[in-house]
Amino acid sequence: MHNANQGQSRPLRGKGLRIAIVQARFNADITDRLAQACLSELAELGVSDDHVEHLKVPGALELPLLLKVLAESGDYDALIALGCIVRGQTYHFELVANESGAGVSRVSLDHTVPIANAILTVENEAQALERSDDKGRDAARVAVEMANLLDDLL
Fold this sequence. Notes:
Blueprint lengths: L18 E6 L3 H17 L7 E6 L5 H11 L4 E9 L5 H20 L3 E8 L2 H29 L1
Parallel strand pairs: 1-2, 1-3, 3-4
Helix pairs in contact: 1-4, 2-3
């Protein structure tokens, strides 16, 4: 049995990786913070700025479609989805959260491309602000780790 990167004991290797970030514009104050933290962490991990594509879509429901197009291109080692869905007083929150999350997962599985899902689902803006920096950095680390793992295995 192959146990590449089991327990993530090896350092993450961003050098040479091509990564695309797809950011929802809705709740831009939060998604911009996610993006800044993510871009900063990618740079720390050795991902070259000219190997990072950063695109924006209107909202979380539009993320899976652009991720699918990027995955189909074969140009990227990993993708990152950034968004923020704040609970409101209607069922719309559940619809957007469930459908965007399912879409991101489906694209990843259908195209064998790792996608770090950093779509925040929160009760209020304070929760989103509290989580945005950590979640942005985590998304970068997940993308690089999964790209490294797939590179080791495939």
